[in-house]
Amino acid sequence: MKRFIYTQADRTILRLALPAIASNITVPLLGLCDTAITGHLGSEIFLAAVAAGGTVFNVILWLCGFLRMGTTGLTAEAFGSKKEGAVNIIFWRAIGLASLLGLFVISVRQPLLNIFLEIISPGNEVAIAASEYFLICVWGIPPLLITLSINGWFIGMQDTVRPMIISISMNLLNVAASLIAVYALDAGFAGVAYGTLTANWTGLLLSSLIVAMYSKRVPLHPDIKRIFHGGGFGKFFRVSSDLFLRSACIMGVSLSVTAIGARMGDLTMAVNTIMLQFFLFFSYFMDGFSFAGEALIGKSSGAADFSGLRSISRRLLSWSAAMATLFFVIYLCGANSITALLTDVEAVRREVSEMSLFLWLLPPVAVWAFIYDGFFIGLTATRRMFVTTLMAILTFAIVVTAGMEIHPFETYPVFGNRMLWVAFLSFLAVRGIGLVIQFPQMIRNMDETKKNH
């Protein structure tokens, strides 16, 4: 058996991955705080309103995630090629696009809200409260998207510590601001939204100060002519559009799992809510290694160092396999205990226990999609990612449709939910396998192109 040797590459991977993981695990704190505050306002309407209004806000943020990913891949590539001017241009293009998108969302906020409320279909009182929440929070979208782009740029510059400081500061500030607004300023339910709004604008201020200090080392002066007419403008928008469409596809599958589960009844919906928490928990850790992959693979690609690229990808795969094994063991041995921490409803606990096989399979099946996403973003091979995601969606649809033809999900919810999770795992597997198959040939082609030139 080959002994694992801790190398400089491993130190570099952990230097990038651990701050990203630390940043990710503060996200649930924010959700728990909002839930706790609204849960003590005297009505279940406020809890439902935060869920509904937050869904609209989160969908917009999810769809705009390409700002972070695309900026990271392009910046890492430019950083590896030692093109300081390109790094500068990418920074300002990302900031500009984020600003325009933020202003666009604000300009269409009411139609967007109406569309989502029509889809979610909450009760009248919940709809009114959710509208109040969203119409306050939406003014924080522009600074949040700009901060997202800044974080992506820093990761591309091989720095995840500054994004960690920004993200953790924003999440803690959000909690503090919400508590102060609701209880000290007596703002009621609206105080939760004002807390989020305050945190987003303060986060942009903090990000700007950090960028200003960083620019003493890497000059960041906006050159309008080069931003609009410099090289790589077409690639910037191609990468952004591919990632936007990919994010929309993944979000569609996620919403489908929730919607189909809801059709099977309240118990099934509750069970799936708990099971998806297992998936999210794993993703918080794997995203850290995916971010490291984006930065390091992009840097090696930009430098045309394909030997180094292969080496770092092997180390990243080793760490990913270790994480998948760790979570497999945790879920195998402790799934029931984790479920007990998340709910005390016996029927939900029992059904989740009966679905344990799917929880055990989540880490080894999902890990490849996570880490290879990082590889492909680093290579800016976003079109391949999008096409592979479309293939995975087709697989998901085929499995779900086949399951419904055998037994209607509404009539056989237990069978149906198992088929739904088979479809979800198939979606993750096809995404991962599709990227795994393409990666070696891509690197060979890039290496041969370099040698020929």
How would you describe what is shown here?
85% of the residues lie in helices and 0% in strands. It has 453 residues and is an all-alpha fold. The two termini are 41 Å apart.
SS class? mainly alpha
The helicity comes to over 70%
| Gap between N and C termini | 41 Å
Give the oligomeric state.
single chain
> Mean of the pLDDT scores?
87
State the gist of this model.
The protein has 453 residues and is mostly helical. The radius of gyration is 22 Å and the shape is globular. It contains 18 helices and no strands.
Keywords:
453 residues, mainly alpha, globular, single chain
What layout of secondary structure does this protein have?
Layout lengths: L7 H17 L2 H12 L5 H20 L2 H15 L3 H24 L1 H12 L3 H14 L3 H16 L4 H24 L5 H25 L9 H6 L3 H31 L2 H37 L3 H37 L3 H9 L1 H23 L3 H25 L6 H40 L1
